[in-house]
Design brief:
Structural class: alpha/beta
Number of strands: 13
Distance between the termini: 73 Å
Largest sheet: 9 strands, mixed
């Protein structure tokens, strides 16, 4: 047996949540079939009755009460400090969770496959509805937009059994190496409990550790409470853990898309979705927490964001997933969906789009669409496009002087140079006189008004006020752009 496997045998179970006597007793009962791999159980608060449980009296497991609060991240840090064994494994469980009898052995089997594994997560199912999936690892884009709601509430038919490497797993049921948690510096205080697990895993990736999910390891957990800060915290996390040189462009793109979604959702009278879009925009407008989290992790990353690209869902895949549901489903801004006209139970979304096991002869339409897109953007098309641009530039090289603000515009056998400025064009449109002698008031051509506006813009350019052919330059630029 390898040293890695021996380390997994000394698991410290860290219990968080409202650990009353009844719920804690049920969790300890569920741990009895897995007692041979556990070394101790740690829980916040003094529970006199828990020390008499058969798990401790008959199986030799140590009971260690902690004085930390109920937060799972702070409890993990406290457990690591109390145990004094950074090489051990910590298993984070809610007092109301019920791991299946083979949950820990299945996660141990996943660890045996690689020495770089630092974090393992189980498949989470609903406590009172064991066939309903709560999550199998996190699925997010590099902008922090979640696809987890597409899985949550779906019936478990084995469709998630092939998942392995993921960007992160929730704190609930997480099995993490103690030395990895110590290397990370513990849980990040800038994020709430719903995002803390994803942050821990993201940082573990940046330190060179693998984060895996074990779909065969099942933990039944209560439904998570609805959080109004989930979108904001995930967006802050993306700003905090992404590459620093991509931060400006990513911030601008996130702000534009979230504000665009906000306007559209308000026009569609969907205030809840609009509120979630605003929470993402607010993360970009007030990124203080993201900057503090980035500063606290400065200089520690050894893996670049490019190496993690395969763990993120693309924005196009997220949009495709939203469109591929059956007719009658509508999506919210964060990826959650509900059937039009139906009331979705709290904490539960309708169905999921990921199918169960399929035949090897079945082809993915999404993959075919991506392949078609790649065929369109192949090297012959790019080469032809570059040739057209180069030929056009060479053909129009003599016209460059006419396009300068102080130039004369485009002139030739059929086009004469225009000597006029913006006030001249404006007067020709506002006070049109035509005919012999004093003339008479008529209707000016409609193109004079936009032409005067373009000429006004040209006059504001450097050397523009000195030009005698402002109208000609403006007309030349209009022809160049439209052509």
């Amino acid at each position: 047996m390898s040293a890695q496997n021996r380390a997994v045998e000394g698991v410290t179970v860290v219990v968080h949540g409202d650990a009353d006597e009844d719920s804690l007793g049920g969790l300890l009962d569920a741990l009895i079939p897995q007692a041979q791999w556990c070394a101790r159980v740690m829980c916040a608060g003094d529970k006199p009755g828990a020390a008499q449980h058969p798990l401790f009296s008959e199986h030799g497991i140590a009971w260690v009460p902690l004085a930390a609060g109920s937060g799972s991240g702070s409890l993990a840090d406290e457990a690591l400090a109390v145990s004094g064994e950074p090489a051990q494994w910590l298993w984070l469980l809610n007092a109301q969770s019920r791991p299946h009898p083979d949950a820990l052995p299945q996660m141990r089997a996943v660890v045996q496959g690689s020495s770089r594994v630092g974090v393992v997560g189980p498949k989470l199912v609903v406590l009172d509805e064991p066939r309903a999936v709560l999550g199998v690892g996190h699925r997010i884009t590099s902008w922090g937009r979640s696809l987890d709601d597409l899985d949550r509430g779906s019936w478990d038919q084995g469709q998630f059994d092939e998942r392995r490497d993921v960007i992160g797993v929730p704190l609930e049921g997480m099995l993490i190496r103690g030395d990895v948690l110590a290397q990370l510096g513990g849980a990040e205080s800038e994020f709430d409990a719903a995002t803390a697990g994803l942050d821990v895993c993201w940082r573990a990736h940046l330190l060179g550790h693998r984060v895996l999910v074990a779909p065969q390891a099942v933990v039944a957990a209560p439904r998570p409470a609805q959080s109004g800060t989930g979108n904001r915290d995930r967006a802050l996390l993306a700003l905090a853990r992404g590459s620093w040189w991509r931060l400006p462009a990513r911030s601008v793109a996130m702000l534009i898309t979230s504000l665009g979604s906000l306007v559209l959702l308000l026009a569609l009278r969907r205030p809840r979705a609009a509120r979630r879009a605003w929470s993402e925009a607010s993360a970009v407008l007030w990124p203080g927490r993201a900057h503090r989290a980035r500063w606290g992790f400065r200089g520690k990353a050894v893996v670049g964001e490019r190496d993690l690209r395969g763990l993120f869902e693309s924005e196009s895949a997220r949009r495709t997933a939203m469109r591929s549901v059956h007719h009658g489903d509508s999506f919210e801004a964060d990826g959650s969906r509900s059937r039009v006209g139906d009331e979705v139970p709290r904490g539960r979304s309708i169905g999921a789009i990921e199918a169960g096991p399929v035949s090897e002869d079945t082809h993915s339409l999404t993959d075919e669409e991506r392949s078609a897109t790649r065929r369109w953007w192949n090297w012959p098309l790019v080469t032809a496009l570059l040739l057209v641009v180069a030929t056009t530039a060479a053909r129009w090289r003599d016209l460059g002087a006419g396009l300068a603000p102080a130039g004369w515009g485009v002139a030739g056998p059929e086009i004469n140079a225009v000597s006029a400025d913006s006030p001249s064009l404006w007067n020709a449109w506002a006070h049109p006189f035509a005919g012999a002698g004093l003339g008479e008031v008529g209707q000016g051509p409609p193109w004079l008004l936009p032409a005067s506006a373009l000429a006004w813009l040209v006059e504001r350019l450097p050397a523009g006020p000195e030009s005698l052919h402002v109208a000609g330059v403006a007309t030349a630029w209009f022809l160049c752009v439209s052509g």
